[in-house]
Specification:
By secondary structure, the chain is mainly α. The protein has helices at residues 7-27, 39-66, 72-95, 101-121.
């Protein structure tokens, strides 16, 4: 029986948690807690969270393969976490008017189309 609670799955869960936090930081700039911050700090912090989440994506796959910890749960969580991170990033950039709506639509449409093809292939 495979152990579904392992380090790679924990990293995927961390990515799932970081995605909405990053989105919140990008779009909620009027929060009274952080009203003294310059707006650029929100961008830097959201970017840092995106980098941290992206690094966990690398280590998630690397550790799962190297330590032979690939699980069915991980096969579901990893792509879900990736899509959530991309969706949060692009929607955040769209809301703060730093990305074109058409570009975001095309990129996200492609991502969900490829994910659909993978599900059908499995």
């Amino acid at each position: 029986m495979e152990k579904s609670v392992n380090l790679p799955n924990a990293l995927a869960l961390l990515r799932i948690i970081l995605a909405p936090i990053m989105l919140w930081i990008l779009i909620d700039r009027d929060n009274s807690i952080f009203s003294s911050w310059h707006p650029s700090w929100f961008d830097y912090f959201a970017g840092l969270l995106f980098v941290i989440a992206s690094v966990t994506d690398f280590f998630d796959g690397f550790i799962a393969r190297q330590w032979d910890q690939m699980t069915k749960m991980g096969a579901i969580l990893d792509p879900l976490a990736d899509k959530m991170l991309m969706l949060a990033g692009f929607l955040g950039l769209l809301v703060i008017d730093r990305a074109s709506a058409m570009a975001v639509f095309l990129i996200l449409s492609r991502e969900f189309f490829i994910t659909g093809l993978r599900v059908v292939a499995v």
